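Backbones bend. To wit:
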Amino acid sequence: MKKAIIIQGGWDGHQPELVSARLAQMLLEEGNWQVDIEDNLECLEDVERLCTYDLLVSCWTMGKITAEQRGNVSKAVGAGMGLAGCHGGMCDAFREDVEWQFMTGGQWVSHPGGDGVEYMVRINYGSSPIVEGVEDFVVCSEHYYLHVDPAVEVLATTRFPHPDVPYYHISNKPVDMPVAWTKFWGHGRVFYCSLGHHDDVFEKSPMAHSLMKNGLLWAGESKARVRRMGLKTDRFASDAKMY
């Protein structure tokens, strides 16, 4: 039985409880997952407990995390725990903590046009097993513009600027903004998807649901990969004392 822990909280506008419940259900319907949901960050202060989990799912927009809490997450992921999340619940969490941004692979900076923008998500076919069976799809939600780590493996993109949203950035050349990506943090697998402003985006779009679920399951295989490859989990140094 695999174990996941979901931290839910922060800004209520992102429906952390509803999103957490939906992501938990994606795991539970596999039949081999136990999921714990915590509505506090104190649960991150026990690194030994964290290391018993196969996956940490972040549903915590904004807020503040202590150096100890983030350092424990960093150590647990580095040792092989997976880390996954969506929208502002992971890449607009803890804006003041740059190590969190380094670990997760990006940071939200804007959503020109606000909620209700219709846009295309284009799959980078062949980029990862996560996108197998997932096709290009349209969503109507916030259109996330992020600052992204160039080390990530991009699984899906969307085009900026949007033709119907005349925001300041339109004076620049068109860019393909990552919507979903993977990266590694130590031995841990990290997955992010920028969809999920409201919980129902995964209900309205079967492709969005598949993308998110596949990403959760991929990240949740980190420890199995560590065991399979016989990787040493004590090789990474912590920069926690720098902050």
